[in-house]
Amino acid sequence: MANYTNNRNGPYRPGQKETFNISRSKIELYMQCQRCFWLDARLKITRPSGPPFNINKTIDELFKKEFDKHRAAGTPHPLMIDNKIDAVPFAHQELDDWRYTFTGVSTLHKPTNFHVYGAIDDVWINSAGELIVVDYKATSKAKEVDISSDWQISYKRQMEVYQWLLRENGFSVSKTGYFVYTNARLDVEEFGDKLEFKTKLIPYDGDDSWIEDTLTNMKKCLEGDIPAVGTAAMGGACEFCSYAKARTELTLKSLGGKATAKRPKTI
Question: Domain for residue 153, yes or no?
Answer without folding.
Answer: yes
